[in-house]
């Protein structure tokens, strides 16, 4: 058979499953060596560690045989981290020793935050490539300021009752500003889904919290001694948080994916079962706690597999005709200017 | 050699399933209708090698070739000492498993405290004063009320204090003593970084028949100030937070929690160490001023009897919880004070 003459067919209307091909054995080796070198170099290597981890997870996530790629270089990550660390030092120093300067700094950070968030998304999107096409993010300062600062502050005055709507606005802002090459993402989200997800999570908490507390007492726990609190109540608390977070996240993820399409390229699908995802998240967290962190690689791989297998894409006719807007010769000057800020100012 | 994989043309989302031909140091790929890419193997830009991830090759003309086999090794490009080979090596992984906890321990208990000690030297006096005054303001507002002891008793303690300062050659500009009533602290004493020392009514009450014991407590608190313990504690928390977020920045919540609890244990250990230092300071000065080391032992014993009265004997904490305590156990401190020898 002659491979060479057949472009890979992206047959329309057949959903392609997302696949995660990583395994915990490979990732354990990467993780433990990353951790060791990060500590031994007092954090310098953590930039390389981040890049290797992301490359492992991106490259092992594939759609229809095409792997994602993570393009950032460790130096870019390190620069961003050093800047973030210096800002943190300055901020903590001011808070501790010059409270008034610290307060002024906190206020100016509120105004800087939208810019940082945009910058971070721009960076991370530009560093993601699929089928030789990079993603990009086009959010404006005004748009980010509205959804990340203005609306959350306003929702305080409604006693957070409007918070689900604010979260919807945030997700819409993020999704609608992403582009795959020259093709924009389009997402229309429904407010009622966000409210029902919030209510469902709330109802689950009314069931889960008494259940967990009952379980604690049933195994003979009392909340008297500090050792009891340390070894039973704190893990139970975290298990509850992860349980509720997973239920909410699964519902919202499904909704976002199923409401999103890339113009002429693909439609996204997700059918993540909230119950199954919650079980995975809670058992992951308990396993990590019980092994003092050593189950982390296994848990992370397990989560990636669950998420991938719940996702799919329907390729549309234009999937083979996307062009990378970032590699064009005429934009190289703009690229030069962009590289000056081509860093993700964050410690994470 | 033939290698199957995917070929991505430059800047375009099309993809072709191809078989690349590697021959005589050259790479040939035919794709589409009569399109071809070729270049010397040396001219390829290869992606970083990571276990379980195929090494991709970018041609100078912009095409990208991804082998299907994650274990494919590009001829002439395998380096035996790459990070990826460490990550695959069982012995390396096993030794990393042992070394990592040891290094975390060393970092939390050695490097961070050492850098705190170093940092302290660079904290200016004015900062120390501001820090002390602001902490005192908060503590006073929340936990302290004016002393209810008779003026005479207060006067006696102040006299003891002045004598001690004079004997130690310390200025009373730098050191002030205050006496407060506090339900929250009970029988207690503490020192703030700028030299303010607070005794509670309950403590003076408990030791009122033994002024030498009060003097010993005062010396212990002066020890905290002289050795800059509060500043060191703040510097320690500061250095700890920076180190944690920088090194373990991209861990998820629970790992941070685990390491955070390591940080708490470290803080407690550090604080215990400072208590020992302050004890040592008090004992040294007692000996220096010609008083008995037993004064301090007696003060501690009195405090011990107070705490024992309030607690049922069965309620005593298990041994390991002592690692989380900010103070060493009173028994050990009493033993240490009793067996003190001047060097």
TrEMBL record, chain A:
Keywords: Membrane, Transmembrane, Transmembrane helix. InterPro entries: DUF898. It comes from the Bacteria. The chain crosses the membrane at residues 28-49, 70-91, 97-117, 138-163, 194-217, 229-248, 277-299. This is Putative membrane protein. It comes from Pseudoalteromonas luteoviolacea (strain 2ta16).
TrEMBL record, chain B:
One of its GO terms (cellular component) is membrane. Its cofactor is Zn(2+). The keyword Nuclease does not apply. It holds the Pfam family Peptidase_M48. GO terms for biological process: proteolysis involved in protein catabolic process. One of its GO terms (molecular function) is metal ion binding. CDD domains: M48C_Oma1_like. It comes from the Bacteria. Residues 153-339 form the Peptidase M48 domain. Belongs to the peptidase M48 family. This is Peptidase family M48. It comes from Pseudoalteromonas luteoviolacea (strain 2ta16). The lineage of its organism: Bacteria, Pseudomonadati, Pseudomonadota, Gammaproteobacteria, Alteromonadales.
């Amino acid at each position: 058979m002659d491979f060479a003459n057949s472009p890979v067919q992206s047959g329309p209307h057949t959903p392609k499953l997302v696949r995660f091909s990583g395994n915990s054995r490979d990732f354990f080796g990467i993780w433990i060596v990353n951790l060791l070198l990060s500590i031994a170099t007092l954090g310098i290597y953590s930039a390389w560690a981040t890049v290797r981890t992301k490359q492992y997870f991106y490259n092992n996530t594939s759609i229809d045989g095409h792997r994602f790629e993570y393009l950032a270089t460790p130096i870019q990550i390190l620069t961003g981290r050093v800047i973030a660390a210096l800002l943190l030092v300055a901020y903590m120093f001011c808070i501790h020793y010059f409270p008034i300067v610290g307060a002024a700094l906190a206020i100016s950070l509120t105004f800087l935050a939208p810019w940082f968030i945009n910058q971070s998304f721009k960076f991370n999107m530009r560093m993601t490539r699929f089928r030789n096409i990079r993603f990009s993010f086009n959010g404006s300062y005004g748009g980010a300021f509205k959804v990340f600062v203005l609306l959350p502050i306003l929702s305080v005055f409604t006693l957070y009752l409007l918070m689900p709507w604010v979260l919807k606005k945030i997700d819409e802002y993020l999704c609608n500003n992403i582009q795959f090459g020259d093709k924009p993402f389009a997402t229309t989200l429904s407010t009622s889904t966000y409210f029902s997800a919030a209510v469902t999570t709330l109802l689950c908490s009314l069931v889960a919290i008494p259940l967990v507390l009952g379980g604690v007492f049933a195994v003979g726990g009392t909340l008297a001694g500090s050792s009891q609190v340390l070894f039973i109540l704190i893990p139970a608390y975290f298990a509850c948080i992860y349980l509720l977070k997973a239920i909410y996240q699964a519902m919202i993820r499904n909704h976002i994916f199923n409401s999103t399409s890339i113009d002429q390229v693909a439609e996204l699908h997700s059918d993540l079962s909230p119950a199954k995802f919650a079980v995975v998240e809670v058992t992951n967290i308990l396993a990590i706690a019980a092994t003092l962190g050593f189950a982390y690689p296994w848990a992370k791989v397990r989560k990636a597999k669950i998420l991938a297998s719940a996702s799919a894409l329907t390729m549309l006719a234009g999937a083979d005709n996307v062009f990378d807007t970032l590699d064009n010769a005429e934009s190289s000057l703009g690229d030069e200017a962009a590289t000056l800020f081509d860093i993700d100012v964050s410690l994470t | 050699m033939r290698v199957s994989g995917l070929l991505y043309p430059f800047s375009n989302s099309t993809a072709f399933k191809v078989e690349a031909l590697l021959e005589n140091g050259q790479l040939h790929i035919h794709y589409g209708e009569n399109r071809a890419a070729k270049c010397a193997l040396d001219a390829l830009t290869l992606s970083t090698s990571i276990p379980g991830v195929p090494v991709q090759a970018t041609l100078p003309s912009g095409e990208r070739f991804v082998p299907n086999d994650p274990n494919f090794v590009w001829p002439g490009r395998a380096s035996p000492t790459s990070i990826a080979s460490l990550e695959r090596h069982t012995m390396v992984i096993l030794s990393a498993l042992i070394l990592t906890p040891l290094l975390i321990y060393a970092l939390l208990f050695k490097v961070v405290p050492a850098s705190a000690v170093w940092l302290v030297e660079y904290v200016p006096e004015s900062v120390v004063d501001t820090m002390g005054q602001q902490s005192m303001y908060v503590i006073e507002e929340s936990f302290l009320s004016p002393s209810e002891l008779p003026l005479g008793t207060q006067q006696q303690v102040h006299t003891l204090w002045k004598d001690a300062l004079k004997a130690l050659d310390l200025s009373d500009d730098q050191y002030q003593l205050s006496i407060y009533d506090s339900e929250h602290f009970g029988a207690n004493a503490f020192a703030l970084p700028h030299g303010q020392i607070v005794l509670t009514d309950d403590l003076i009450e408990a030791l009122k028949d033994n002024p030498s014991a009060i003097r010993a407590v005062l010396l212990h608190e002066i020890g905290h100030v002289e050795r800059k313990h509060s500043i060191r504690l703040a510097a320690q928390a500061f250095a700890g937070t920076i180190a944690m977020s920088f090194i373990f920045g991209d861990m998820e919540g629970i790992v941070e929690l685990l390491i955070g609890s390591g940080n708490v244990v470290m803080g407690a250990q550090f604080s215990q160490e400072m208590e020992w230092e302050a004890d040592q300071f008090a004992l040294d000065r007692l000996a220096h001023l010609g008083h008995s080391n037993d004064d301090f032992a007696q003060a501690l014993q009195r405090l011990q009897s107070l705490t024992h009265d309030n607690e049922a004997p069965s309620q005593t904490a298990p041994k390991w919880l002592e690692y989380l305590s900010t103070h060493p156990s009173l028994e050990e401190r009493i033993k240490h004070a009793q067996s003190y020898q001047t060097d």
